[in-house]
Amino acid sequence: TIQFDGTDSDGVAIDANNETDKELLLVSVDGALALVDGRWENGLRFTFLDTDNDTIGDFPSRYAAEKKGAYFQSSLGLGVGLAPSDHRLTLGIDYEDEDYSQRAGFADQDQSLDNLGVALEYFVKPVAQLSLSASVRHDDNSDFEGITTWRGTGSYRIESSGTRFKATAGSGQKRPGFLERFGFSPDFFVGNPDLKPEKSIGFDIGIEQTLLAGRMLIGATYFNEQLEDEIVLVGFPSTPDNLEEKSKRQGAELELSALLSEALTLGANYTYTSSRQPDGAGGDVREIRRPRHQAAINVNHEFYAGRGNVNLNLSYTGSQTDTVFSFPARTVTLGSYTLANVTGEYAVTPRFTVFARAENLFDEKQEDVAGFQNPGRGFYAGLRFGAGR
Question: What stretch of H or E contains 203?
Answer without folding.
Answer: strand 198-211
